[in-house]
Structures are given as C-alpha cells and as structure tokens.
Specification:
Blueprint (H helix, E strand, L loop, with lengths): L18 H25 L3 E8 L5 H9 L7 E5 L5 H4 L5 H4 L8 E5 L8 H4 L5 H22 L1 E9 L2 H13 L9 H7 L2 H14 L5 E5 L3 H18 L10
Parallel strand pairs: 1-3, 1-4, 2-3, 4-5
Helix pairs in contact: 1-10, 2-10
Amino acid sequence: MYSIKLNDISTRASKDVDKNETKGKLVSILEELDDLQNLLYAESKHCLLIVIQGMDASGKDGAVRNVFGKLNPQGVMVKSYKAPTAEELAHDFLWRVHSHSPAKGMIQIFNRSHYEDILVTRVHKWCDDKLARKRMKAINDFEKLLVEHNNTSILKFYLHVSPEEQQKRLQERIRDPKKQWKYNENDFSEAKLWGQYMSMYEDCFENCNDVPWTIVPADQNWYKEYVIAKAVRNVLKDFDMQFPGLKK
C-alpha cells in the first residue's frame, strides 16, 4: 500500500544541497522548459496537467509565477479553484474541472484542484468518509480517462510547508503592503486545523495514487521551484517530441 507520513518528510532541502548551485541549475532548466513548451505546442500530440496542492501560504502562486511565468502564454493555462459557485454545486463535483483539462499541445496548471473536494470538505465535515471514497474512485477514473484517451501526462505536487513557516508567511501578509491583497482572516482559523488537514492529505495520497504524488519541500522557495521545474522538464523530454514538417 502506498503510504506517506508527512511528519517523516522534511519541509526543507537536505543540508548537502547548495542554494546558489541549485538556483543556477534552475535557470538552465527554465531555459530548457521554454524550448520544450514551444515544441509541445508545435507538435500538438501530447498534453500535460499539473496539479498543485498545499496548505495556505505553501507557495502555490509563487510556483506558478516563477516556474511557468516566462513560458509562451499561448501554450500555458492556469485555473485556480475557489469555493464552488451555486451553479457548480448543482452538478457533480468534477463538472467544473473536466472542461479545464488540457488540450493537446497545452500545459494546464491547476492551482488547487478537484482534490479540494476530498480535503477541505472532509475537514469541515461537509463530506463523510463514504462519499469521500466514491469521490476518490471518480478522481482515479477521471485521471485515467485523461491519460488513456487524450495522451495526457499528469504531475501532482503537494507543497510541503511547515506550520512555523506557514505562520511566518501569513504574518507577512499583514505587514507587507505588497502581500496584503492576499490576506484572508479565515487562513488563520484554517491553520488551526493543521492536524486534520494532514490526515486528510495522507488519506488522499494513499487512495489517489494511480498517478503518483511528488511531495515538494516548500519552506525554501528556491528549492520548491527547482523540484517542480525539474520534474516538468523531465516529463516533457520523455515525450521525445519532433517539430512537424511542412504542411502539405
């Protein structure tokens, strides 16, 4: 059985990882990503779905901006999932997600995702275990559908931040004028439910792992971005893509 215990995984890079060297590698990887994304778009045979999950202030927005921000915007789409609207709640929980799955040639990023419906909903008791199990099966089937019927590769990242670093970043949203727009009083009450969230995430990792999760140490933004960029670069290289020839 696929089992992840978040308490056993560090939220920081190992001590033998050099910060400056890693930042240098990241620059090179981002240059590769630019070329690979252009090739992906031109060939239009594959597509990539990137799921980014994490607690508040784990660095999801920063990862999107700093890893994908310099790519061609014609070939990258970002969808951020907030609380469902009344219309969305009137449909099945995947209804609002499926239309945002990537077309061939595209990179689609989910900033939060369909996994919210087995995470926050369970923590707040809006979804019981029986319903959660049904949703997990539906999620696995949905991801299998994308992989098998649209040549989609899926990368799922959990940004693993420590509660101490989270509190530091939440406080920065109060003090720093450039970050005050992110402030949400509710983030502090959600942070008090840390243990429940960790439990629900671990259950999610165990039961929704047909597409495996990458646990990304997220206390240091430079390392978080390196891990994500490297994984994306490796997947795109594995596509073994070629530019199309002249159209006849």
